[in-house]
Amino acid sequence: MFYITAFILGSIWGSFSNVCINRIPKNISILTARSFCLSCNKKINWYDNIPLLSFIILKAKCRHCSTKINFEYFLVELISAINFLVIFYFFGLTFESLLLIILSVFFVIIFFIDLRHFIIPNELTFSLMALGFIKSFLTNPSLFIFPDYVQSLIGGVTGYFVIWFIIFIYKKLKNIEGMGLGDAKLLSALGFWFGWIALPFILIFSSVIALVIAIPSLINKSKNMRTQIPFGPYLILGCLFYLFFNDQIIKFLS
Question: pTM for this one?
């Protein structure tokens, strides 16, 4: 029952994440406005807004206008549910689990907003920065991957200026923007959460993942080296790889 509850809670937060993904870029309130169909603008009844189940029961169509519901809604809820389940499975009912759950919700929202709109809203990155630094005073760095406040502060500042420097140099050489400051703020947030030592690995992992995914498009010429890509999702995937291989990285460095 514990893991079933975690899965259900995750799907509920996934539903809320969908609200954020759709409303934040449009500056629509995520708290006051009720859920509505983006096609016919009809309010969605509570029984048509049950995470995961409603998508299946409605056969991915709006009850009022029969417009097809984007599969992304279901995917976000499923990913969020799995995130909660995995976190509770490995870390149980701990303070670290709560922190990772909060981080996972932010990750899902940022991932899909950047993937769709090529932006990372400041309200998300600034909130992550603040939370990342505050939690460095509340966790024991000897027990987990979270750093102390000194490493956290250095990581946050370094993360921002690494991307800022890349943007500056690329613009000087090519006279175009190579990356956005949203990526700089996201890497800064990751630095606040996991310290400066995590940054090289996150950048390496994210760059490799981005390159591997981009190679087929470059080969068939559907994209070129000037094609705009959202780098935020790759930074998130790079961070997940860092967390997954954290033990091996520590052993390699020690």
Answer: 0.91
